[in-house]
């Protein structure tokens, strides 16, 4: 298939592009390089630099290429920033998607995979969190993904655009061959920040709260490997050929505390990694773990990385070989 990947120069997008190309698909990466990296774009992909907020860029893209499907990663992703700069998120994430959908429906694209999030589930009634959980975004970022899922329902009903919304829990790790990985600026995520201490780029890691109602008092998260997430996109693209739209929660199904993650990073790197207790971070929930039974049973998704140490090892390989990320 000919697939448009918006945000294909970003962390998860670049790993998905790799699998699409290995699977024989033709890929066009559309990215404004605001957060993505040119060096992360697969050499066999066609790269179009452009912005979803610029209708001319989108018109030129669709005039030059025909697409069987779209995978949409391009968006701002920081929960905290979305609460201080809400209009940045609402404008770019929502209006950018609207521009894309308008072009997609005008050009009769029939398949759409949405990069969605666990940030849809604020204060869940049950953990592990299944697709039956009430959608209740706890941030403007989460709201933009909620709106995206809602918009897609109407696109399906009116234009027959079949979609799959994939709600990632904590994406982490890197391609096992070490050529692509995570490079955010600023970096806010636990695993890369902890590994930067092992690299000597930071003095210590702050633990945001140790008085939560969890066994060791620190927050529990579901760390899912980026290659497993990428595999889910390939399965979803195939699955919606049957004409049914879908929504899936993606995690490894196991939760690890902040302290367990830091301990694992120590074991993998052999570095002492000093940790200090700090204030709780606003908006953090004590426990976020996915129930991914549905995608496993419906699409046969079988994550290869169920072991935190193996996940961190791939991240460490990337960070230790590229201490300055793609700038290297
Ligand atoms: N965290 C932390 N110190 C840091 C960064 C993150 O203690 O420097 C904690 C954070 O409070 C959360 C967990 O690590 O409980 C995972 O945070 P991350 O930002 O990686 O992902 P999120 O769960 O927010 O999507």
Structural account:
By secondary structure, the chain is an alpha/beta fold. It has 2 domains: 2-172 and 224-250, Rossmann fold, CATH 3.40.50; 190-221 and 253-327, Alpha-Beta Complex (UDP-galactose 4-epimerase, domain 1), CATH 3.90.25. The protein is 38% helix and 18% strand. The chain contains 10 helices and 14 strands. It has helices at 11-22, 55-64, 79-84, 86-106, 140-159, 190-198, 226-239, 258-269, 293-299, 308-321, and strands at residues 2-6, 26-31, 46-49, 69-72, 111-117, 162-168, 170-172, 205-208, 220-221, 223-225, 246-250, 256-257, 275-278, 287-288. The strands form 4 sheets. It has a 7-stranded parallel sheet, with helices on both faces. A 3-stranded mixed sheet has the order 12-9-14. It starts with a strand and ends in a 7-residue tail after the last helix. The site of uridine-5'-diphosphate (UDP) has 14 residues, from helix 6 and strand 8.
């Amino acid at each position: 298939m000919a697939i448009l990947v918006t945000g294909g120069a970003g962390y998860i997008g670049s790993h998905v592009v790799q699998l699409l190309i290995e699977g024989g698909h033709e890929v066009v990466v559309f990215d404004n390089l605001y957060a993505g990296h040119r060096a992360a774009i697969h050499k066999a992909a066609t790269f179009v630099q452009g912005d979803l907020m610029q209708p001319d860029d989108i018109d030129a893209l669709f005039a030059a290429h025909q697409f069987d499907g779209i995978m949409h990663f391009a968006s701002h992703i920081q929960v905290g920033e979305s609460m201080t700069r809400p209009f940045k998120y609402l404008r770019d994430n929502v209006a950018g998607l609207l521009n894309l959908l308008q072009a997609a429906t005008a050009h009769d694209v029939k398949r759409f995979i949405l990069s969605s999030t666990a940030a849809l589930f604020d204060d869940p009634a049950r953990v592990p969190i299944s697709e039956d959980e009430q959608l209740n975004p706890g941030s403007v970022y989460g709201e933009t993904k909620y709106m995206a899922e809602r918009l897609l329902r109407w696109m399906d009903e009116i234009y027959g655009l079949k979609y799959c919304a994939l709600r990632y829990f904590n994406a982490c790790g890197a391609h096992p061959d070490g050529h692509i990985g995570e490079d955010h600026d600023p970096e806010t995520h636990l695993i890369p920040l902890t590994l930067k201490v092992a690299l000597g780029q930071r003095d210590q890691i702050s633990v945001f709260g140790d008085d939560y109602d969890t066994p060791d008092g620190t927050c529990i998260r579901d760390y899912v490997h980026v290659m497993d997430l990428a595999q889910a996109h390939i399965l979803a693209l195939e699955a919606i050929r049957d004409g049914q739209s879908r929504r899936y929660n993606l995690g490894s199904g196991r939760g690890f505390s902040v302290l367990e993650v830091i301990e694992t990073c120590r074991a993998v790197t052999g570095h002492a990694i000093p940790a200090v207790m700090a204030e709780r971070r606003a908006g953090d929930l004590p426990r976020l773990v996915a129930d991914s039974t549905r995608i496993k049973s419906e699409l046969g998704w079988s994550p290869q990385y169920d072991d935190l140490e193996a996940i961190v090892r791939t991240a460490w390989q990337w960070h230790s070989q590229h201490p300055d990320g793609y700038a290297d």
